């Protein structure tokens, strides 16, 4: 059972920056897919960004160009650099890992609040 622990959430002003981290309890070297998903109050979970084992990344249109996902396999850690977030980015952010077809493990989430 892989455990994922997110950190780095908090309160940030719109236009500022924040970096989320997700540390895995096991090696992520061969993990096919790692990603960030967020859930705002009263809303369903939505895709934010994903990074694939080969290095490709993909982003939701709403964060493209402002958020950057990365992974450090040596530290079993994935990151989400959030630049110039807007209040619409306020949500609980979850990291997840899995195969090409589905996520198998989820973190407990970290709250991000963006003030205007």
Description:
The protein has 116 residues and is an all-beta fold. The chain is built from no helices and 11 strands. The chain has strands at 4-7, 10-13, 17-24, 33-39, 46-52, 57-59, 67-72, 77-83, 91-98, 103-106, 110-115. The strands form 2 sheets. Strands 2, 4, 5, 6, 9, 10 and 11 form a 7-stranded mixed β-sheet that branches. It starts with a strand and ends with a strand. 30% of the residues are buried. The model has no long low-confidence stretch (mean pLDDT 96).
Which labels suit this protein?
116 residues, mainly beta, seven-stranded mixed sheet, four-stranded antiparallel sheet, 11 strands, 0% helix
Number of helices: 0
Oligomer: single chain
If you average the pLDDT, what whole number results? 96
Q: How far do the termini sit from each other?
A: 39 Å
Question: Which overall shape is indicated by the principal axes computed on the Cα atoms?
Answer: globular
Class from secondary-structure proportions: mainly beta
Radius of gyration: 13 Å
Uncertain spans, ≥5 residues at pLDDT below 50? none
Tell me the strand percentage band. Answer: over 45%
What's the helix-strand series? EEEEEEEEEEE
The largest sheet is: 7 strands, mixed
Number of strands: 11
* Range of helix content: under 10%
């Amino acid at each position: 059972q892989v455990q994922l622990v997110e950190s780095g959430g908090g309160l940030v002003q719109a236009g500022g920056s924040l970096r989320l981290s997700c540390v895995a309890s096991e090696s992520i070297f061969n993990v096919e897919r790692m990603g960030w998903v967020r859930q705002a109050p009263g809303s369903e979970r939505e895709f934010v960004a994903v990074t694939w084992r080969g290095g490709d990344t993909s982003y939701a249109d709403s964060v493209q160009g402002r958020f950057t996902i990365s992974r450090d396999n040596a530290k079993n850690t994935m990151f989400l650099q959030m630049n110039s977030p807007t209040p619409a980015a306020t949500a609980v952010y979850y990291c997840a890992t899995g195969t090409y077809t589905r996520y198998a493990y989820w973190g407990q989430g970290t709250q991000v609040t963006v003030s205007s």
